[in-house]
C-alpha cells in the first residue's frame, strides 16, 4: 500500500465515495502519526486548530468509512476506547500488541509465528482465515522493575 493522496483518492473513487477536504485532512493525521493508535477524539484534537470546520461527527463517520474500506485498522485495548491505526504497506496481518496492565503502555511487535497454526485451523475447520489480532497483557519493563523494587523491600 502506498501512502499518498492518490492512494486515498483511488480507494474512495473505486468504492463510490468522494475525495473531500475533510477526508484528506483526516487521512493526513494518520500519515503524520503512523506509529500511533488514535481514538476519534485524538484525531479531532489534531485537526481542530487548523481545521475548525471539521466536526467530531465527521471524524467519527470518516474513521468508520476508512475502516470499512481497509484504509485503517480498528483496535480495542479493552479499556473502553476504540482506536485506529493506518494499515501498514508491508503487513500480511495486523501487527500485534503488548499491553501493560499497570500503566497502559502499548508496545507493537511484528513477530508472527501463527502462520502454521492458521493453516491447521483452516484445514480442521474448513475456514478461510483472512487476518488475526493478538494482544498480550502484562507489565512493561518500567512497571516490572518498579514491582520488583517494591517486592524487595
TrEMBL record:
Molecular function GO terms recorded: DNA-binding transcription factor activity; transcription cis-regulatory region binding; zinc ion binding
Cofactor remark: Binds 1 Mn(2+) or Fe(2+) ion per subunit.
One Pfam family here: FUR
Cofactors demanded by this protein: Mn(2+); Fe(2+); Zn(2+)
Keywords for this protein: DNA-binding, Iron, Metal-binding, Repressor, Transcription, Transcription regulation, Zinc
DNA-binding keyword on record: yes
Bilayer-spanning residue ranges: none
Binding site for Fe cation: 132
Domain of life the protein comes from: Bacteria
UniProt-listed SUPFAM superfamilies: Winged helix' DNA-binding domain (SSF46785)
Sites where the protein binds Zn(2+): 100, 103, 140, 143
One BP term from GO: regulation of secondary metabolite biosynthetic process
UniProt xrefs under PANTHER family: FERRIC UPTAKE REGULATION PROTEIN, ZINC UPTAKE REGULATION PROTEIN
Family membership noted in the UniProt record: Belongs to the Fur family.
Protein name according to UniProt: Transcriptional repressor
Lineage: Bacteria, Bacillati, Bacillota, Tissierellia, Tissierellales
